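go over this chain:
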Amino acid sequence: MPEQLALEGNLLRVAHEQLRREVRSGATGVEKELRGLKQQSPDDGDEPRGDADRQVQELEERLRGYKRRLVGATEAEAAHVRRCKARVDHLVGSGYCRGGGEAPTPEEEQAFVQARVDRAVAEHMVRQGCGRSAARLMADAGIGDLVDAELIDAARRMRTELRAGDAGRALAWCAKQRSALKKLGSDLEFQLRLQEYVRMVRRRELRDAIAYARDHLRLGRSSPAAQRRQLLQAMALLALREDLTGKDELPEPYRALCSDERWVELDDKLGGALAATQSLPPTPLLHSLMESGLSALKTPGWEISAEQSRGQAQYFCQSQSPFTSAPIRQLAAAVPLASHSDTRCAKPSTFFAFLIFLPVFCFD
């Protein structure tokens, strides 16, 4: 992939992963349904005609229901294929994928740049919970197939609820992704179940906690030793007489189990699982583009004294160096230095647009 498209890998990866999962799920469903239909089919034996007619009617109703589900699955697969094609066309249309080192035309580059900023802003709005505004932007810009709005919004809701202490959505997601999480060696579901048990114990719902542990926290002989030790520590919470809601100081390791910071740790673990199973990047595209743009501008001499920046506008500068602006210097503090020695904006009046889109700079 050309270096101009280095940040576009997830654009194709996420759509392809969703299509792959949809196809695999559909194939598994077809095999399961066919086995059930074969078992339900009437035998050739000497059965009463009434029983045979009833079995045929039940089989017909089941076939109709299966047909409706199959149509829905086919439409879902077609939607994923359409999204994959739209994203490939978007990257090919940028002009950077031509062979022979041929550069894109100004029209192609401008269209690609505009679509990229619309995508970045729409994705950021979805991550911030502004779904309706993001939907209007995507509809006006015609980029609905280029933004994973539903996937991002579902992940946002799940992680928001988890940080607030509600693991319901996260546990439902783990149940659907159990095989994928097992291949990754992730213990996310165990940790979520354990934290639900701890939450019940902290509320002194001891009978419910014991029943929950019997149903969901059974470990086999092949379970990791760390999980077995953590489960034993959690069981010991039943015997503690201290206030587990945070009023009393608890000894370790019970303090860590009962800490509200556990929900934050589980949220980080869930974010990693989402990135691994669905190729959903934890960092918004807008952040990645801004970091790349700032890194391209940040040379070894980027720090400007207060005397040099004094008198400049607070949020935008008229100098060729963007770092006379204090907010820009603050944003660039954590990004790495560029490999060249000097940088200036070709068009300072459009600096922020260039910053986002890895613009054309003049390097000396």
